[in-house]
User: Which sequence fits this backbone?
């Protein structure tokens, strides 16, 4: 029902809307529970958030990023002003969208290393980070229309959605937007095979695409070579959390720049796919062993210690299988020209005409 109940004009039926609202509410309750655990049962909250929820997210984004976009608890919260008609519904200029998209990439690169420095071992710090994100997102939601307020601009997860979601399994119904008002141009949700290299209207979009595609594989590699710090005693220890990720990012960016300059545009699209597959593969190459007690640094990122039960080669097989799957799915598998979700009907004929003009 969640994926198939449409009315004419790509509108959801009443029963499908109820089903999606139930799904959103359930996922929101899971998120609220994890948030409460971060505050009152930090060990459990950190385990659930960083070592259960987050490890699942990249694979979900590769296979069906539209599902995540429909049920993300942060998105559900930040879109409440629009759902309850409390938003001023201002149109965000494309240039501002582009600037905020670049800010999101920079925020991703600044926040993730803080996991080693503080977030992985502090429920209060992680909860504070989530609360700040909700506050910013809802504040913008009271001003700007639909997902332009947060989900398609400032959200630090959105650059990763763009990176991994270029060849999604299928287009799901849009469970948030009841009509299209062209709030985000181009719309990441309803543009087929959308990736960070698609919007190239201005220098902000070009730079953000370059940084996330070229830098993410090396950044992930460097991140996994830094241990968690139980206690920060100096600024130097904070800086050390950034050294390896940034060094890997720079090396990766250099390689990406060289490849783009050697290849033509069509081959450049293949390079984007290879870097996307490399990034998600790099993540699971280190993440799967760490989850099972075979990580590089003791118990960092561990869910259950199976090192005394499973042989080392078993995790190697798991990671090789993951790498082969992601390269097949992202690089080899034929593009199906699907968007993340189905665009709902345009709010007005004028919106439709303006969108057609933009598309041309």
Assistant:
């Amino acid at each position: 029902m969640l994926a198939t109940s449409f009315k004419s004009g790509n509108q959801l039926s009443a029963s499908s809307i109820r089903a999606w609202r139930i799904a959103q509410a359930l996922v929101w309750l899971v998120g609220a529970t994890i948030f409460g655990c971060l505050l009152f049962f930090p060990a459990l909250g950190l385990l659930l958030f960083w070592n259960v929820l987050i490890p699942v997210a990249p694979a979900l984004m590769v296979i069906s990023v539209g599902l995540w976009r429909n049920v993300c608890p942060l998105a559900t919260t930040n879109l409440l002003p629009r759902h309850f008609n409390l938003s001023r519904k201002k149109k965000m200029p494309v240039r501002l969208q582009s600037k905020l998209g670049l800010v999101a990439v920079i925020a991703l690169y600044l926040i993730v290393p803080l996991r080693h420095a503080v977030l992985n071992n502090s429920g209060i710090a992680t909860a504070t980070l989530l609360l700040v994100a909700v506050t910013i997102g809802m504040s913008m939601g009271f001003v700007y229309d639909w997902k332009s307020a947060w989900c398609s601009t400032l959200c630090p997860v959105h650059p990763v959605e763009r990176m991994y979601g270029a060849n999604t399994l299928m287009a799901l119904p849009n469970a948030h937007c009841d009509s299209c008002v062209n709030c985000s141009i181009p719309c990441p949700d309803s543009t087929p095979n959308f990736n960070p290299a698609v919007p190239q209207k201005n220098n902000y979009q070009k730079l953000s695409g370059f940084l996330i595609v070229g830098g993410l594989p090396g950044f992930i590699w460097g991140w996994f070579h830094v241990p968690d710090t139980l206690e920060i005693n100096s600024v130097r220890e904070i800086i050390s959390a950034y050294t390896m990720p940034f060094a890997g990012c720079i090396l990766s960016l250099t390689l990406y720049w060289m490849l783009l300059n050697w290849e033509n545009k069509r081959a450049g699209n293949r390079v984007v796919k290879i870097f996307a597959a490399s990034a998600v593969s790099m993540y699971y190459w280190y993440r799967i062993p760490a989850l099972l007690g075979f990580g590089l640094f003791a118990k960092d990122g561990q869910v259950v210690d199976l090192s005394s039960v499973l042989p080392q080669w078993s995790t190697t097989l798991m990671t090789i299988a993951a790498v082969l799957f992601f390269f097949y799915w992202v690089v080899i598998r034929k593009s199906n020209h699907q968007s993340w979700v189905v665009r709902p009907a345009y709010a007005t004929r004028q919106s439709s005409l303006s969108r057609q003009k933009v598309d041309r």
